[in-house]
Each structure stands twice: as structure tokens, then as C-alpha cells.
Design goal:
Layout (H helix, E strand, L loop, with lengths): L2 H27 L3 E4 L4 H14 L8 E4 L6 H14 L3 E4 L2 H5 L8 H21 L3 E3 L8 H4 L4 E4 L27 E4 L7 H11 L10 E8 L2 E4 L14 E6 L10 E4 L5 H9 L19 H6 L4
Parallel strand pairs: 1-2, 1-4, 2-3, 4-6
Antiparallel strand pairs: 5-6, 7-8, 7-9, 8-10, 9-10
Length: about 300
């Protein structure tokens, strides 16, 4: 093994060991944990680590998918097939009141839409089931507000986050003490990068949603963002007409708010090669990150993932 490959293997082994330690520590400290499952590549890696952490026992917590009803069809198909294959306990929660009011990403804007169908839905689900810890697949390299969060990220009785009142984390010591009604978001992948995730997916042969791989898809170019027309609900503006382009997604969310990139990467190896030479951030195509009235930090303060 070359020196570079040996260093990468050692690096991934250290990241894996740290994440498994965090998963086990959380289960030991909290009474009712849950794992948030967004169906993305980070969720797949986190779930794979959890299976390793507690093997051969089944997962000691359920998965929770906060469903806006606007995910890509491929994501729903992948979720249902993957969960059924492995027999995971999956909870799906929707903000029924917001859906009944017809809140959607076209008429109400990304800020109101995200608050109702993601933030409020998540807080509803956590309160409904009384979860006191929620695993998430967020990484510090994704976005500047995520870089501020601790591995154990405290939430008050209203599910809100205050970056000025975070607890110190020295070495691998975590403070998991919460009072009734308070909770913790736990991020075992905090120290991973996007490239680490893809190297680990390659090493462990972890399945991911096909949308991560390049293929010809129906796309419109809206102000420089390539949006895939995934179903009949897409609102086309005058002059817009979907055209086939060879694209893939670096990050997945609700399809009207997730931009694709032009790419020829059809394998994990090709994606890694593309990442090494990438000059744009991973979340360049996530429109909610660029909403000036509702920055990611503000959303997180309100309880967003």
C-alpha cells in the first residue's frame, strides 16, 4: 500500500472509530434517542456506522424522516426499498397543518416553506415521541453556521439553539445532561469532509440514491441554477422548457430547491476525482442556504436541523 493510501486508510479508521464512540456514548447517556434520516449520502454513512456500532443487535433507536412531500421521487423509492430490506423502524412525520394550508416552495418562498415543513415538522415529531437526543448527519465543512456547532449540540425546551451558550467539549468528553423538555442534537460526522464521506462510501460499498450519479435528466436553467423537473407540480416560468442535460446532485433536498451540477461522474471513483478538483462548495445548489432573510444560522436557532 502506498504512503498516500495508507494515510487515507488510517484517517478513515480514526473517523470511523470517533463516530462509533459518539453513537455508543449517546445511546448510553440518553433515554430516548432517534436518528434523523434524510435519505442523503451523509445519512447513509451515519446509518452504516450505527449498524457497525451495535452489531449484531438491531439499532437501539428508530429512524425519523421529516417528509415535506417535495423530495425527489428517486429518494422516496430508495428510502422505502432500503428500509424494507434491512427492517429498520422508520417514523415518517409531516406537518399536516401546513400541508392542509397548501404551503409550498413556489407560492410561499423558501423561508416560510422551510420553517413550516422542515423546522416545525421536526419540532413536532421530536415532541410527539419525547425524543431527548437526535442524531444528524451534518458536517462542519458544509456551511459556516454548522461549523459553529458542537458534536453534542444543546437545544432548549423550545428546540432552539443559541451558539453563545454552547457547552465546551474537551478531547472526546461530551456533556449530555439535559432537564425535562430539553434535548440534544448529536452530530457523529462533525469532523468528516465531503471527500471523506465519498472515500468511506467507496471503501464500505454503501448504497446511495442514484441521483448522485450523472445521467441525462430534464432540467431548466433558472438564474444559473439547474433545476430538475421531477413531476407535474414544478411551476415553469414563461419561456422555460425542460431540456435533457447530463447532471448529478452533490446534495439532495426538496427538488424545487436543489440545484444540480453538470457532470460525467457515473461511479463513486469518478465522483471522488471530481471532488478533488472542485472549486465550488457542496451546497452551492441549495437555494435555502442563500435566502438572505433566513440564513442557515437563523433557521438553526429556530430549531432547524
Amino acid at each position: 500500500m502506498s504512503e498516500t493510501l495508507h494515510a487515507r486508510a488510517s484517517h478513515l479508521a480514526e473517523l470511523e472509530a470517533e463516530s462509533i464512540h459518539i453513537l455508543r456514548e449517546t445511546v448510553a447517556e440518553f433515554a430516548n434517542p432517534v436518528m434523523l434520516y434524510s435519505i442523503g449520502k451523509d445519512s447513509q454513512v451515519l446509518l452504516h456506522l450505527a449498524r457497525k456500532a451495535f452489531h449484531p443487535a438491531p439499532l437501539p433507536f428508530p429512524l425519523l424522516h421529516v417528509d415535506t412531500t417535495w423530495k425527489f421521487r428517486d429518494m422516496y423509492a430508495f428510502r422505502d426499498a432500503f428500509v424494507a430490506k434491512h427492517g429498520f423502524r422508520l417514523l415518517v412525520h409531516q406537518n399536516r397543518r401546513a400541508l392542509a394550508e397548501g404551503i409550498n416552495p413556489f407560492d410561499h418562498g423558501s423561508q416560510k416553506y422551510t420553517h413550516a415543513l422542515k423546522t416545525q415538522a421536526l419540532l413536532e415529531a421530536l415532541a410527539l415521541h419525547g425524543f431527548d437526543a437526535a442524531f444528524g448527519g451534518a458536517r462542519r465543512d458544509e456551511e459556516k453556521s454548522r461549523a459553529k456547532e458542537r458534536v453534542f449540540s444543546f437545544r432548549d425546551r423550545h428546540g432552539q439553539w443559541d451558539p453563545r451558550r454552547q457547552r465546551p467539549e474537551l478531547w472526546n468528553l461530551f456533556n449530555g445532561r439535559v432537564d425535562a423538555g430539553e434535548s440534544m442534537r448529536v452530530f457523529p460526522l462533525s469532523n468528516w469532509t465531503e471527500l471523506d464521506v465519498w472515500h468511506y462510501i467507496l471503501r464500505e460499498r454503501i448504497p446511495v440514491v442514484p441521483l448522485y450519479f450523472a445521467a441525462e435528466r430534464p432540467v431548466i436553467d433558472r438564474n444559473g441554477t439547474l433545476l430538475m423537473v421531477d413531476d407535474e407540480r414544478m411551476r415553469l416560468r414563461p419561456g422555460e422548457r425542460p431540456a435533457p442535460r447530463r447532471v448529478r446532485f452533490r446534495t439532495l433536498g426538496c427538488y424545487p430547491l436543489s440545484g444540480a451540477i453538470e457532470s460525467s461522474a457515473t461511479t463513486v471513483e469518478a465522483i471522488i476525482h471530481e471532488m478533488v478538483h472542485a472549486r465550488q462548495s457542496e451546497r452551492q445548489g441549495r437555494l435555502i442556504d442563500h435566502d438572505e432573510e433566513g440564513s442557515m444560522e437563523l433557521k438553526k436557532r429556530e430549531g432547524y436541523f
